[in-house]
Description:
- This protein is mainly β.
- It has strands spanning 2-6, 10-14, 17-19, 23-27, 31-35, 38-40, 45-48, 55-57, 60-62, 68-69, 87-89, 94-97.
Amino acid sequence: DRAIDTQAGTTTLKNCVIHGNRIGLFPHGGALTAINSLITGNTEAGVQFATSAAVLRHCNVSGNVTNFQNHPDPTGSDGNVSVDPRYRDAGRDDFRLRFGSPVIDAADGAEAPVADRAGAPRYDDPRTANTGTLSGNGAFADLGAFELVEAANIASNLDLAVSEVSGPAGVLAGNAAALRW
Length: 181
């Protein structure tokens, strides 16, 4: 029903995925802060104001029936965005990010844990614009629980080792060249 319903005290969420509830965040007292989190796919509201406002920094609130209900919308400030995170398969609870996700390298690195939920270290994807801030290991962390890490060590029965390459010794820019391998 409500993923996070605070009553009193201080609650801080870091690099979380809040998805598929009726209400994602429901600050009903106390202090609720969400950092580097994805709040998506909730059927009533991503964040709903009850008796106090949540503080969001470097969060993505998107794809909810209503992203903010009776709550100030912080999109565009403090690193907050509202974009499709491009999960691999949210319908099957696979909240890993696909390449090209706009929330890759978008986290507040100082607030991100050194590793993601699966134990992968923070990774700065060289093909992605860094919109977040550096983490302790010098990488730009991703929003959410899982870091996009494209590993070359995944088991495969394909062998694409090239034994020989042939083609012209040089080609001028703009001209076509044929390579064989």
